[in-house]
Amino acid sequence: MIFETPLVHGTLIRRYKRFLSDIRLDDGTTVIAHCTNSGSMKTCIEEGAEVYLSPAKDPKRKTRFTWEMIKINGQWVGVNTSHPNLIAFEAIKNGAIDKLSGYTHVQREVKTGDSRIDIMAQNTHETCFIEVKNVTMKDSEYARFPDAVTTRGKKHLEELINLRKEGIRAVMLYIIQRSDVEIFAPAHEIDPDYAYTLKHAYNAGVEIIPIRVKVNPNEIKIEKELPFVLDA
């Protein structure tokens, strides 16, 4: 995923009310930027850290910028939760994820059961439903999800389990927007219900694919698939 418009550099002053952040631009101006991440952003918030913002396309929007990334320990961490779905969609269409290659039709936001699944991919012999989650939390070498309790995330896992019961391929795809982690694991201590349901889903045949991406001010690109562990 390439940033079509040049990003604007600044420094994080604070994040507040979940969806707002004060940013000091390089020219000394302080602006309010929209934060798309509704989670705790644990391990990717550091006041005084470098950030990049994207200018809003809609001139009528109250916040003129969207917060895209923050530099933590010398590396960029992507904090815009709207990007992973697009990253996954483009990667699957282009065959950039080995385990999800070979599909000729790829569609976003497809309703199934009581939920909308992020991506449906099809070819002549199978249909695959793929739910995408954004991961930014770091714990030693582990990337962990979620960073806050997510009943919606649990519901999506239950929908993937139902699809597997019908014989349909179902995948939980985690897009990890930081390069300083090597293993994916659920955050048992934050949301034990989600961790339990993820393991149940895996045992029921739902595939788990954690993909680490490289974030920089020009683009976000696929790096590699990471191994995962499900036990606490």
TrEMBL record:
<feature type="domain" description="SfsA N-terminal OB">
    <location>
        <begin position="13"/>
        <end position="79"/>
    </location>
</feature>
<protein>
    <recommendedName>
        <fullName>Sugar fermentation stimulation protein homolog</fullName>
    </recommendedName>
</protein>
<dbReference type="InterPro" id="IPR040452">
    <property type="entry name" value="SfsA_C"/>
</dbReference>
<dbReference type="InterPro" id="IPR005224">
    <property type="entry name" value="SfsA"/>
</dbReference>
<dbReference type="Pfam" id="PF03749">
    <property type="entry name" value="SfsA"/>
</dbReference>
<feature type="domain" description="Sugar fermentation stimulation protein C-terminal">
    <location>
        <begin position="83"/>
        <end position="218"/>
    </location>
</feature>
<dbReference type="Pfam" id="PF17746">
    <property type="entry name" value="SfsA_N"/>
</dbReference>
<comment type="similarity">
    <text>Belongs to the SfsA family.</text>
</comment>
<dbReference type="InterPro" id="IPR041465">
    <property type="entry name" value="SfsA_N"/>
</dbReference>
<dbReference type="GO" id="GO:0003677">
    <property type="term" value="F:DNA binding"/>
</dbReference>
